[in-house]
Amino acid sequence: MTQIVSIIATHQARIRCLLSQFLSRKIERFQNGSVVKLIVNSQNISINLIYSGELDEFKPERKYYVTNEDFNNEKYIKQSESKFQPLQFPVELNNMANNYIPIEGSTTFVFYLVRHGQGTHNVLKGMAKKISSISGEKDTHLTEKGIIQAGNTGNFLGSTTDNGLTSIFNSKYLFISDLQRTKETLASVLANGQLMSGKTIHSNKMIMLPCSHELNYDKDGQCDGSYGQAMNANEN
Question: 51: part of which helix (H) or strand (E)?
Fold first, then answer.
């Protein structure tokens, strides 16, 4: 059996739109630097949140997914409830029949979907945020904290062996979106992951996915080309 492993540094709504296509319902938010692992072959699709990520912004009214381990850790919930509402990742995504993605043969594809770290646009508030969404910087960068968050993601992935078969060190492809914050995220993830483990990622070339910028989230999952994209924020 052939396994092809890839890392995709991407955006929150991109992940939410993808998962809504599988569940046909609203998907909640993901923290900075979180990691969703997707495994797909001709028969099955398995999707799990393996790293909760981090959130420094104060958003108590919003729900963010955390891993089952973190959700069941009462200390983690108490620490986080002032910032956001922790939510378990949908268990029904763990094992689904593959009625969505045509795959021939016995190849298994493994994708690590990494949400970028905190961006400069993420820390804006009030009127500054509204103005920035209309006329602000079009291609924002990670904050200093965002770089640390991405590095912490790398530390986690660097210490996760997955029996060596589907670890990030077997990644054949490294993908980023066409926005700088994903490139900066993946660079920090790889640097810390390799430093943590002492191993080297097989691939050293980042591939930019065209038209992969951030979107406005539509709960039906049909985000690309939808009417909801007419008023997309400037940084996206």
Answer: strand 44-51
For range 160-164, the mean pLDDT: 64
- Give me the mean pLDDT over the 86-93 stretch: 94
**Helix residue ranges per DSSP H, 1-82:** 12-23, 68-71, 74-80
What residue ranges in 52-209 does DSSP mark as E strands? 63-66, 85-88, 96-97, 108-115, 171-176, 206-208
Look at residue 225 in the predicted model and tell me its pLDDT.
Answer: 86
Estimate to the nearest angstrom the gap between the alpha carbon of 89 and the chain centroid. Answer: 13
| Least confident interval from 106-110, 141-145, 153-157, 164-168 | 164-168
Torsion of CA 78, 80, 82, 84, to 10 degrees: -130
Distance (Å, whole) CA 136 – CA 232: 12
| Sheet of 35-40, strands arranged across | 96-97, 44-51, 35-40, 108-115, 3-10, 171-176, 206-208
pLDDT, tens digit, for every residue of 29-49?
Answer: 999 999 999 999 999 999 999
- Helix axis angle, 180-197 relative to 144-158, nearest 10°? 40
Contact 183, 192 (CB under 8 A): no
